[in-house]
Amino acid sequence: MTLDPLPGDLYHMQELLDGREKEILGRVRGFLEAKVAPIANDCWARAEFPFDLIPQYGELGIAGLAYDECPGDRPSSLLTGFLAMDMARVDPSMATFFGVHAGLAMGSIGRCGSPEQRERWLPAMGRMEKIGAFALTEPDGGSDVALGLRTTARRDGDHWVLNGAKRWIGNATFADHTVVWARDEADDQVKGFVVAKGTPGFSATRIENKIALRTVQNADIVLEDCRVPESDRLAGANGFRDTAAILRQTRSGVAWQAVGVMLAAYEIARDYAVGREQFGRPIAKFQLVQDLLVRMLGNATASLGMVVRLAQLQDEGLYRDEHSALAKAYCTSRMREAVGWARELMAGNGIVLDYGIGRFVADAEALYSYEGTREINTLIVGRAATGMGAFV
């Protein structure tokens, strides 16, 4: 299959995909452009989620590709990355929704669940008949979550009693299964629990007044003597190292999302520059405008090359923490520059939602922050480079 070229894919990276992968990506790209792109601005402006699209996402058959319990051939990391990139190129909010569900929630169950748990939860989640959320971040904790997790779990017979609070939990207002990470009072180790929607003692309240990823339904979660059966404790989650392994995988997905945002910024700015006339000619004919476009294209091209190699390392089994940490820190930093240059090129029109770039400028701030700040990811890479940790 031949894919239509992407304006920002200067080195034709998508041609590295094989024929089957191109067919999947082309099908998803067509869905995004036909169903998601036309409503993205409106959903973002109203901070409302398009629930009617969930079954259509399920019909694409991509949520369960990485899991043996779901039908289909396992994808390469390259295809998984391009899917994340294309979703973010159209709507970072919907890319985040999908990443939370298929990456964080399903990834937790796929990596840490017992065979029975994986069979019980993953097939329906792969069909997107059941939606997942991932609850790690807390109101008073962020980068210190490894040592500062305050949500507790206490064993009581055949159940666990959870108490605490979580914040910024995507999908949590409507998720069927929320993976909650809590510290076991008995051994002080972090464990994972799958909390079903409607469980007494579990409440999720939508966070209002966001200025980024407004379509994503982030929630504050409160756990008050929330009882979870032992059968719903993730059997293979026995310490924060297990949580960190999931974040290592999904952190690379955020780097791919950042590339998608850069490609969107470049495409929007380029089309605007070609069509906008000043002084009797398109502004694309002015040197300083071309300079901004080339800077954007350079950031996107360098970042795309990095994440392509990252995907190859994943498939070769050579993937380490510092690889995803550097990609996340670098690509989101370049993304921040690129969307700023696109807004600059479009002047006042760049802050009007109708012109497209404003949503990406705002959403870039969220991608820059979640899945590990630039500073924390820098320290992960610095430790690998020097052999010495500089964490507080």
UniProtKB/TrEMBL annotation:
GO process annotations (BP): fatty acid beta-oxidation
Obligatory cofactor(s):
FAD
A single Gene Ontology molecular function, please? flavin adenine dinucleotide binding
Classification via Gene3D superfamilies: Acyl-CoA dehydrogenase/oxidase, N-terminal domain, Butyryl-CoA Dehydrogenase, subunit A, domain 2, Butyryl-CoA Dehydrogenase, subunit A, domain 3
Give the matching InterPro entries: ACX4-like (IPR045008), Acyl-CoA_Oxase/DH_mid-dom (IPR006091), Acyl-CoA_Oxase/DH_mid-dom_sf (IPR046373), AcylCo_DH-like_C (IPR036250), AcylCo_DH/oxidase_C (IPR009075), AcylCoA_DH/ox_N (IPR013786), AcylCoA_DH/ox_N_sf (IPR037069), AcylCoA_DH/oxidase_NM_dom_sf (IPR009100)
Q: Which UniProt keywords apply?
A: FAD, Flavoprotein, Oxidoreductase
Domain named Acyl-CoA dehydrogenase/oxidase N-terminal is located at: 21-129
EC number(s) reported in the record:
1.3.8.6
* Keyword Cell wall biogenesis/degradation found: no
Family note: Belongs to the acyl-CoA dehydrogenase family.
UniProt name for this protein: Glutaryl-CoA dehydrogenase
- Give the originating organism: Actinomadura coerulea
